[in-house]
Automatic annotation (TrEMBL):
Keywords per UniProt: ATP-binding, Nucleotide-binding, Transport
Domain ABC transporter residues, every copy: 6-233
Pfam families: ABC_tran (PF00005)
PANTHER family the record matches: ABC TRANSPORTER, ATP-BINDING PROTEIN
InterPro entries, A to Z: AAA+_ATPase, ABC_transporter-like_ATP-bd, ABC_transporter-like_CS, P-loop_NTPase
Family affiliation: Belongs to the ABC transporter superfamily.
Organism name: Pedobacter insulae
Record protein name field: ABC-2 type transport system ATP-binding protein
GO molecular function terms attached to this record: ATP binding; ATP hydrolysis activity
């Protein structure tokens, strides 16, 4: 049995002559909150539409809970709920009526409506016209609409786009509640790492249609561990003296190695000076995740 809610194998998609998704192999573990990150135009929405079978390409290899979506379309779609681009809301109907309408369409009992309103924190606004909702309330209603069929997998395309800090926190808390209390797997796209950093358990970073990083949030954090950067007059001799120490980067007369401790850094300084090397600068550096994200996405 696959432990993955979503798996794509070498997914490629073209709009005319433009390849917008390139050889994409996503692995979204069951129960995860998977942050699907990338700058504007990276191919996130296109990928989500392929996952929902709204777009198809000849090279499609999409597995939902281990089963090929092309041969199990209806069964796969039943297990998914989605909020892509703007939520499909009738502004002249109340939040409650929008949900009742969706239940009728899907042949689901209407008693789910109160539960959904409560889950997304819209009970008090249930009878207000949805057209008068704030952006954040509309997004939450959109999520409630995606949840009425009780899907195991939720695909949310930039659900916090345009929201104020409070709206962002509300969506973040809702995602955490859905994953932890209701055992949903959530794929959530964003162009801002900071927005999903505290929510996601796993991250996939995409740029120009290519997957540049995929792993747990801790693995991403590991990439931003502190380093020591040394600038010297004799780089070759310095590297020889460093012996088996891992060299993370060598650029001109500077070398970057992993930071162990302040003691180690002082010892390195002494070692270099005792061997006649001029140490122009020595210091620690640490990339915050946002800079790391920019670094990763500017590489391709
Ligand atoms: N219907 C379309 N026809 C032609 N090109 C398209 C179409 N939809 C998207 N594209 C192009 O495909 C590329 C990927 O777009 P996509 O919307 O998937 O990116 P995204 O990562 O979701 O970006 P954003 O954060 O801006 O929504 C872009 O260059 C976009 O211009």
């Amino acid at each position: 049995m696959s432990n993955l809610a979503i798996e794509t194998v070498g997914l490629t998609y073209n709009f005319g002559t433009q390849t917008v998704v390139k050889n994409l192999s996503l692995q979204v573990p069951k129960g995860s909150i998977y942050g699907f990150l990338g700058p504007n135009g990276a191919g996130k929405t296109t990928t989500i539409k392929i996952l929902l079978n709204l777009l198809k390409s000849p090279s499609d290899q999409v597995f939902i809970f281990g089963r090929d979506i092309n041969t199990n379309r209806i069964a796969s779609l039943k297990r998914m709920g989605a909020l892509v681009e703007q939520p499909a809301i009738y502004g002249h109907l109340s939040g409650k009526e929008n949900l009742v309408n969706r239940c009728l369409l899907l042949g689901i009992k209407k008693n789910k409506v109160a539960e959904m309103l409560s889950l997304v924190g819209l009970t008090d606004a249930a009878n207000k016209k949805a057209g008068k909702y704030s952006l954040g309330m509309k997004q939450r209603l959109g999520i409630a609409l995606a949840l009425v069929s009780d899907p195991e997998l939720l695909l949310l395309d930039e659900p916090t786009n345009g929201l104020d800090p409070n709206g962002i926190i509300e969506i973040r808390n809702l995602m955490i509640e859905l994953a932890t209390k209701h055992q949903k797997t959530i794929l959530v796209s964003s162009h801002l790492l900071a927005e999903i950093e505290r929510t996601a358990t796993h991250v996939g970073i995409i740029n120009k249609g290519e997957l540049l990083f995929q792993g747990t949030i801790n693995e991403l954090h590991d990439l931003s561990k502190p380093t020591v950067k040394v600038e010297v007059d004799d780089i070759e001799k310095t590297i020889a003296l460093l012996g088996p120490t891992e060299i993370l980067q060598q650029k001109g007369s500077t070398v970057t190695i992993p930071f162990q401790s302040r003691e180690d850094m002082a010892n390195l300084n002494t070692l270099l000076v005792q061997n006649g090397i001029k140490v122009y600068t020595i210091g620690t550096e640490r990339k915050d995740l946002e800079n790391l994200f920019l670094d990763i996405t500017s590489k391709n």
